[in-house]
Design goal:
Elements: H1 4-17, E1 20-25, H2 30-46, E2 50-56, H3 59-72, E3 77-82, H4 89-106, E4 117-120, H5 139-144
The structure holds NADP nicotinamide-adenine-dinucleotide phosphate.
Keywords: Oxidoreductase
InterPro entries: NAD(P)-bd_dom_sf, Sec_Metab_Biosynth_Oxidored
Protein name: Ketoreductase (KR) domain-containing protein
Length: about 140
């Protein structure tokens, strides 16, 4: 099995190699939150620029994470993006449009637009039968994908 050190070194090298415009869903807790904190921590030492869009439903926890991250990485930019239910494609569209507009404003002249790092940390484990959203999709798979 590959060592945890090799994984951490590889991730750190990537984080240090370029401006990272990052979108982290489920960013208010769990894997998403820890991804943001780790990005902020590693970036502060040798990173080339960090803009994180923390997508979450719970603003209080997200703002707490952002304030901790600004202490870890004062030169980073962290923005909370309020999500509804990401199993609804209309809510996903809203979040995408919000991030697109915010990043156009935040980017420097000449910067190539784009998201360089995506963590899809939202979700839950489902052991139940299919449940449909109001949009007629399977709620679990719609949320994941
Ligand atoms: N932890 C593990 O060992 C592990 C292993 C394999 C796979 N996974 C999968 O990885 C994902 C994240 O796991 P985790 O441990 O970080 O879970 P977690 O701590 O429960 O975090 C899940 C996040 O997803 C958000 N979320 C849930 N339903 C949502 C919805 N309908 N719309 C928008 N956001 C929603 C939650 O927001 P709220 O706080 O607002 O509810 C929460 O921030 C899950 O899909 C899990 O099944 C986890």
């Amino acid at each position: 099995m590959i060592s945890i050190k090799a994984v951490k070194d590889c991730n750190a090298a990537h984080i240090k190699s370029q401006l990272l415009v990052s979108v982290i869903t489920g960013g208010a807790s769990g894997i998403g939150e820890h991804s943001i904190r780790t990005l902020a921590d590693i970036h502060d030492k040798e990173g080339k620029g960090l803009r994180i869009y923390l997508v979450g439903r719970e603003g209080v926890a997200a703002k707490h994470t952002i304030s901790d991250c600004l202490e870890l990485c004062p030169k980073g930019a962290f923005r909370f993006v309020q999500a509804g239910d990401l199993a609804f494609l209309k809510d996903v569209d809203y979040v995408c449009a919000d991030i697109t507009t915010a990043d156009e404003i935040a980017s420097s002249p000449g910067e190539r637009p784009g998201i360089y790092f995506l963590v899809m940390g939202h979700g839950y484990l489902a052991f139940e039968a299919r449940q449909e959203t109001r949009e007629g999709l399977d709620a679990f798979y719609s949320l994941l994908y």
